[in-house]
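Changelog-linked ticket: zinc ion example.
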Amino acid sequence: MSQPLVLGIETSCDETAVGIVRGRTLLANIIASSVEEHARFGGVVPEIASRAHLEAMQPTIEKALKDANVSLKDIDAVAVTAGPGLVGALLVGVGSAAGLAIGLDKPIYAVNHLAAHISVDYLTHDHPLEPTIALLVSGGHSSLLQVNEITSSIVKLGQTIDDAAGEAFDKIARVMKLGFPGGPAIDAMAKEGSATAIDFPRGLTTSNDWQTRPYDFSFSGLKTAVARYLESVPDYVRADVAASFQESIVDVLLLKALAACKSSGIDSLVIAGGVAANSRLRAVAQARCDKAGITLRIPAPGLCTDNGAMVASLGALMAAANRTPSPVAFDADSSLPVTTISIQL
Ligand code: KG4
Ligand code: ZN
C-alpha cells in the first residue's frame, strides 16, 4: 500500500477534527472546536468537550469526505488519537474510529497524539529528516525528543518538570485578562512590545541545571515572576510584559533544542505542537538554526494546533511502512507515553 487513503480522527482535547490524506498529500482537514464553550471557564472543561465531540463527530466526518471528494468505501485505513489527552474526549474519537474500521473492514492505527503532531510535517515537506531532534510544545506537553524513525523509534531526551509551554501562555493570558487560549493573544500583543523591557527568568538554565537536566524545562518560576511583576508594577506596559514573557519561553526552548542538536550531532530540528504556531518562536528558531547550520522544519501554523490531518498523516506513514495495525478493541490511554507511537497488543 504505497499511497494509502487514510481518514484520521482527533478528539484528545476540545477540537473534533477529521483529516484525510492520500500518502503524504493532504486532501481534507476539518476542525470543529468547542473552544468558545470553555472560554468563560478559562480552560477546557472535560465533560463539555466530550459532549461537543459526540455532537460534532458525524458532521465533521461527512464534511471531510466531501472536501476530499472521496467516499467512505474508498478509505484504506482509519487512524485515531489513542492518547495522551482527556480520557472522556479520547473515547469519543476511539469509539467512532473503531466503529468505522469494523464497518468498513479496514485496519485501524491507534496513534500517539504527540508523535502525530510531529508527523504532520511530513505532509508539508518532501523529504523527512530522520534522525531529527524534535521540540514538541503544546498546551499539555513540552518535550525534547530524538526521532530516529517516526513510525517506530522516538526517544525522550527531556520534558517539562511543571507547566507545559502552552499552559504558561494560557495562565499568563488569564492573569492579563487576554482570554483563552492565551497563546495567540500574547503572540499578537507581544508584537507591539519590547522583548528586552523586562528581564524575566529563564527556567533550568543555571550551570548546574545544564549539568544535571540539560533537556528539561520549567516554566512555573517564570509564571510566578510575571504574576509578581504585574502586582508590583501597577502601571506596567501590557505589550512589554507579553513580549518579555514570550521571549523567556522562546529563548529557553531554543537554547535547549539547539544544545540537543549539538550534543547528538543531529543537524535537523522539527518544532511541533500548538506553541509552534508562535510567530516569535518561528522567527528566532529560523535565525538561530541558520547560524548553527541546522535545517529547521516547522509545519504551517494552521497544522501546528490540534487537527485531524496530523493523525491521518501518522496513520498513512504507518501503513506505508507496513507497521502492524492496532487491535480493534484497544483502550484510550490518557497518559500514553510519547515513545509508544501506536497501540499494539
Ligand atoms: O497542540 P495544541 O493545539 O493542543 C494540545 O495538544 O495541547 O496546543 C494548544 C496550545 C495552547 O496552550 C495555546 O495557547 C498554544 O498552543 N498556542 C500558542 C499559539 N497558538 C496556540 N502559543 C503561543 N503562540 C501561539 N501563536
Ligand atoms: Zn496537541
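Closing comment: Example verified and attached. The chain has a mean pLDDT of 96. The first helix runs from residue 35 to 39.
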